[in-house]
Design brief:
Helix content is 70%, strand content 3%. The protein is mainly alpha-helical. The relative contact order is 0.12.
């Protein structure tokens, strides 16, 4: 059997099967007369084999995700600082800049890339349903470029938004293109791995990326995607860690709670945080679905709707001076013991809700953690003799769980971003209680419900297949 091989391929075949029939050179290539077994060996293990191309795609995509996540984080911080300087110099400026900015960004999003609106996590969930279609409809280069630019724009106008959700969508796109360049077929696991790597790069928390892939991005965690997810997450996390250093997102927390303190504080945090998080989730979904004529009329006019919501954010921000941007600084200050108004959590929740339903790009991870810090500050008032920072973390994990409904992810994010490993059990108790409470109040999970709006409408064939799946009696028999 005659076949073509590069010189290094020849060495592979010679080492594996020394009984070559003949070897000749032709135009810089080597023509070998080799057995069929050697051809199979080259096809399966040579440098152009699918397994090697897949490894290159994972490595290249993960490194790129880490670099882009780090650059995006720096740009987001810069944008937030620029707006803070503006608001401090001219207190009235946000009353003009923020509403106009909301209207302009919502209009640009609707015109250029409707799939760039909102968090980006629902888009990645929808992309796992139809990977090939998703590359052009949900995670194309145009969509993610618009997402990156406009998310920075939202922070420049003081929006209560975060960069973590957009990072997930951008990361899924990068991983998808890496596999396309290497001619590897797209599967759901590619987007799951990319999105998980985005979480790891955004928070500098690799374990949280793995947990998020299991709890949120993958409806059912398949064993065959384990290596892909773990590899992408660890490489993206190491890239970000190597360039930015071993920083802790919210600062180091060494406080702990005794068993008695946990038994009292954890249920209170779980109930309060779960209720408030479920309220936020239901409010976001209801705003997009309600048929109440005033809201429906405004939804049909996205720029006007976003402008009015921007005015609400501006008024609350000017009145409080605390609710702008991601809320990272306020959350860190509350954790470290700074005094904060007891209404901060409610005010930040209102501005985050207004931003989330405005139709602009932007995530809710960081703002939700900031609202959770406000919830924890309320609890700190109820337990004045308990370690204050620990109580705040219970509120953060409980509220975040109530919104996202991913208790394991919430616990790992809080423990990794605060180095509070001594609080793992209290945090887990609060998260599990909050999950039960939130499920009672809001049956739908926020990201999963939002992902449905990015799916194409079902066809009659899809409806018949779904009906047959739920009614075995109607399934045709061979």
């Amino acid at each position: 059997m005659v076949g073509w091989a590069a010189p290094h391929d020849y060495r592979i075949c010679r080492a594996a099967l020394p009984d070559f029939r003949s070897v000749t050179r032709y135009g810089g290539r080597i023509m070998v007369n080799l057995p069929e077994q050697a051809r199979d060996l080259l096809r399966e293990h040579g440098p152009t084999a699918p397994v090697w191309r897949r490894r290159v795609a994972i490595l290249g995509g993960a490194v790129t995700i880490g670099l882009v996540a780090l650059l995006f984080a720096h740009l987001a911080d810069w944008a937030g600082e620029r707006f803070t300087v503006l608001a401090m110099r001219w207190w009235w400026a946000p009353l003009i800049v923020t509403p106009l900015g909301y209207a302009a960004i919502a209009g640009i999003t609707a015109r250029l890339a409707p799939a760039a609106r909102g968090s980006g996590i629902p888009q990645v969930m929808a992309a796992t349903r139809d990977p090939d279609h998703a590359m052009s409809a949900l995670v194309s280069a145009r969509i993610v470029i618009v997402k990156l630019g406009l998310t920075i724009g939202t922070l420049l106008v003081g929006a209560s938004t975060g960069r973590e959700g957009p990072t997930v969508q951008v990361a899924a796109s990068i991983m998808g293109y890496a596999h396309r360049i290497m001619a590897i077929p797209l599967r759901a696991s590619v987007f799951i791995a990319g999105g998980a790597a985005g979480v790891a790069g955004a928070f500098n928390t690799p374990l949280a990326g793995v947990a998020f892939a299991i709890e949120e991005l993958a409806a059912a965690y398949e064993q065959r995607m384990t290596l892909l997810v773990m590899t992408a997450v660890l490489i993206a996390g190491m890239t970000s860690l190597g360039l930015s250093g071993d920083y802790v997102y919210f600062g180091v927390m060494r406080q702990t709670l005794s068993v008695r303190e946990t038994m009292l504080a954890a249920p209170c945090a779980g109930v309060l945080g779960g209720l408030m998080g479920a309220f936020f989730s239901r409010a976001v979904l209801a705003t997009g679905r309600t048929r109440w004529s005033p809201v429906a009329w405004l939804r049909a006019r996205p720029m006007l709707f976003a402008g009015l919501l921007g005015a609400i954010v501006a008024i609350i921000g000017v009145a409080t001076g605390l609710t702008w941007g991601t809320g990272y600084s306020a959350a860190r200050a509350i954790i470290t013991g700074a005094d904060a108004p007891h209404w901060y959590g409610l005010a930040k929740l209102a501005t985050t809700l207004a931003t989330a339903v405005s139709g602009m790009p932007g995530g809710i991870f960081a703002p939700s953690l900031s609202v959770g810090a406000g919830v924890g500050d309320m609890l700190r008032w109820l337990f004045p003799t308990y370690p204050g920072g620990a109580i705040v973390l219970l509120g953060m994990v409980a509220y975040f769980t109530g919104v996202v409904r991913a208790p394991l992810t919430a616990v790992i994010i809080i423990s990794e971003t605060t180095a509070s490993r001594g609080l793992m059990m209290p945090l887990l108790a609060s998260a599990l209680i909050a999950d039960v409470v939130a499920q009672t109040v809001s049956k739908e999970r926020l990201y999963h419900a939002l992902s449905l709006s990015f799916l194409p409408p079902p066809t009659e064939t899809d409806a018949e297949a779904e009906s047959a799946r739920h009614d075995p009696a109607e399934t045709p028999r061979s």
